[in-house]
Amino acid sequence: MSIFVKDPCGFICITLTYVSIFYADYVVVRWVIMQTMQDSLWAPFHVILFNSVIFLLSFSHLRAMCSDPGAVPLPQNRMDFSDVHSGSETLLQHEDWTVCTRCETYRPPRAHHCRICKRCIRRMDHHCPWINNCVGEQNQRYFIQFLIYVGVLSIYAIVLVVVSWVRACPECSSEVSLKQTRMLHSVILVLESSLFGMFVLAILYDQLEAIANDETTIEQLQNSYAGKGGMSVHKTIMSTLCRLPCYNTAQIAKTTGGVHSV
Length: 262
Description:
mainly alpha
């Protein structure tokens, strides 16, 4: 079951993502490949390969955005939580479960309530505005695929631009206005690719490290605020950048524990 989140910040981030992708495609095809490789068989090869990466990127992004991240099912009827303090048999069967007072249901271990999605998510890592969805148990693999393809696309675009300016190009137009336009688009594309590439590769490293340590971002933040060892500078910066300027990460971490919701 997918969760459609009506979050303005998410809509802005998704729009920015696809505007950047389509702009990169426009510059690479129109001002890099068609201007410097028009008489070479490398032109169709790079057009097909570059757009194939864009297709895979878009597909993985849509899967991460539209897939259920692992939402805990809501109860059919209003539940009575008096057994939390009475030690009833129901709670004893799930002694490591907690109670979400916002969803009004029991939630399994390592599930957290997202105040943006307004649902409890199993193994919730964080809410990411770039996919307008939580990254959780069931869609984290799509999120990681998206990060990989963005990194590959960024590196590919930079390499194409650098090669187009370094190698000799006798067939390139000598018109000054075309050269200036191509240079302007190339500079913008390199800056865009560098920023997005470094950003997603850092997040990818953070995600892979979290998987290797079997600890989500929220759990890392909880441990740091609980005094079990502070987070590294890298993790603190990445956990903040992934949510700015929309969400207060510190407040989320401080209110995630116990029987209360985030």
